[in-house]
Hints:
Elements: H1 2-14, E1 20-24, H2 25-32, H3 42-51, E2 58-61, E3 72-76, H4 86-102
Antiparallel strand pairs: 1-3, 2-3
Amino acid sequence: MKNIFFYYVKLLICTMPGNHIDLNAGWIHRTVGGYPGKGHRMPVCCDVMYDLMSGNDMVLKAPKKGKGASLTIRYFRQNHSCCGSSKCIGKILNDLQNAIKAAGGI
């Protein structure tokens, strides 16, 4: 599941329409699937979001323990080198598809 979150968030960052994008962990996990639910992977989703931060990307909102559905991070285009490159986006899409297959689907 970690790879699915990783490539999905990376895809969102690299296809952002403007200079920045605000991503929320609850929305990401609901979109990928499995949240809310008993076997949710919210801590993994949040770890991926934190790991993808670079430069002056910033946490806009975080729960007291740091990991939860309210975590919202602003990612800036200039901090992510692949943004807008069709070759890079194609690779991320391929990697995301492979991660989904390896996990047996979402």
